[in-house]
């Protein structure tokens, strides 16, 4: 295994994604002696124990809590099922990797770990910091290193499968048709704020609302405290990185910036049109004109139907072979630089291609990644400065009696946080570490200086409690405006729903709603050509309009939707127009192709997992899965 790796940690190695350090551990050796050892599931000869499953489920629930997501009791069974499915997938992938001999060398694992900024001191790997990091998290080095191997192998497998995925030209064209789709729509928007404004409320109604919902106006218990903080993002401004440092970092990157051969080509496109033979004739005549000495660039402007590239001399961009499947790619990657191709047919039409530039296999040019590398070096140095400042703060904390004295000693500002509740507040948001630390200190009646509290990887604080505030119901006068606004909004929503129903019925009958809309100050109407990819329209309205089936026989599609701003909208879709791929700018088409390839790759990887499931002997203990968690 890797028992000797830790003795070989020396030298400089390529930076590898830090996320590998933080990926969750797999199912190896999870001791839970105090919990029953009944199995939740089995995959061939691998058993998944209840303790491990419950631990993974608890981690998932904690993740939801940290993101402010509350999972209802009735929905927790679905979370448990999803957690088990993920564990089973991990087992299946690990079995496949082991059976097919996908290996990672000890030296590569060592380079991954050595390259992590978490373990750096003065730009060099520190064995001491490495062991300290592991000890703080109660992780055995051998287990940690083995998990790096497993995660890297899994990542290689996934990338390999996704890299082989491709989208056919016809699929690509249909996708571009949908991206560029437009729909003629008439929209009547009902403004809630206009409806709510004239609504009058009786004082006794406001009082009753307040009395019946007093729990909604509860001001929770809170704590006042002062603190000082260290922030990594504030250490970047004065950092200086020399050109020599960046270039050395680039040279030390190993295979990180390796790239496949790329080719840049330009083309003249003659769309298929209604008469394919006529289009072919036009393309052939154009090629003959080029061969007779006419300018390729001038013919691009006068003949090419690719509006997205004709203004840039027909440039298709710098592409790899995998980005150009089919006849066009075959042609471009069989040409020599400067060559003009024969006429090539694709689903888009007939192409005449000129190969402009070839970049051979090798590294990505330094100029293209210089700014990226500079930013990485800045972050590394900032991380080291942050660690140094934490050490200085720790040393000063040992001799300090109160926070103001500590702040003076190390030149930091004292910040006041008032009414910090169990839900958080201020610049800390809902950070659970701060909430737990502050309220634990209060419960322990500890009003002394705290230890250094690491909020996240970029921020640490030292705090001192100053006071505690009991929970209480806020006075009516403090919440009157909120109550009035809520009551008016509820009434306005009822009115808006009635108006929307009336307008929709009129549209269904084929009547004009303009006269009705004119009588209502809360309703505005507009007729427009809505684009599926536009970012200018309300996304809820856009999703509903383009979620409608295409109209048949001229019968419009009619519907009502609540927009993202809360207003109601009634719409009528009268026409759907497919987009024309050739009219989409080249850069947007390239982005669409990349997105489609990514989706296809993800689909292929999911299909691969499904195939592994079909081949494996999988059993599940439904009783344990559907039962309450040990932690609930």
Describe this structure in words.
With 632 residues, the protein is of the alpha+beta class. The chain has 21 helices and 21 strands. The protein has a four-stranded antiparallel β-sheet with strand order 18-5-20-19. Helix 7 crosses helix 20.
What amount of the residues lies in strands? Answer: 15-25%
Please provide the count of β strands.
Answer: 21
How is the CATH topology of the largest domain named?
Answer: Triger factor/SurA peptide-binding fold
Shape: globular
Total domain modules? 4
Q: How would a crystallographer describe the biggest sheet?
A: 4 strands, antiparallel
Q: Tell me the strand order in the biggest sheet.
A: 18-5-20-19
Considering the chains and any ligands shown, give keywords for the structure.
Triger factor/SurA peptide-binding fold, single chain, 632 residues, 4-stranded antiparallel beta sheet, 4 domains, 21 strands, alpha+beta
Summarize it.
This protein is of the alpha+beta class and about 625 residues long. The chain is globular, with a radius of gyration of 32 Å.
Secondary structure layout plus pairing:
Blueprint (H helix, E strand, L loop, with lengths): L18 H4 L16 E5 L2 E4 H17 L9 H24 L6 H9 L5 E2 L2 E2 L1 H10 L4 H23 L5 H11 L2 E9 L1 H5 L6 H10 L5 E2 L2 E10 L11 H9 L6 E2 L2 E10 L4 H16 L4 H8 L11 E6 L6 H6 L11 E3 L2 E11 L2 E2 L2 H34 L3 H8 L4 E7 L10 H12 L9 E4 L2 E11 L2 E2 L2 H33 L5 H6 L3 E9 L7 H9 L9 E6 L5 E10 L8 H30 L2 E3 L1 H5 L6
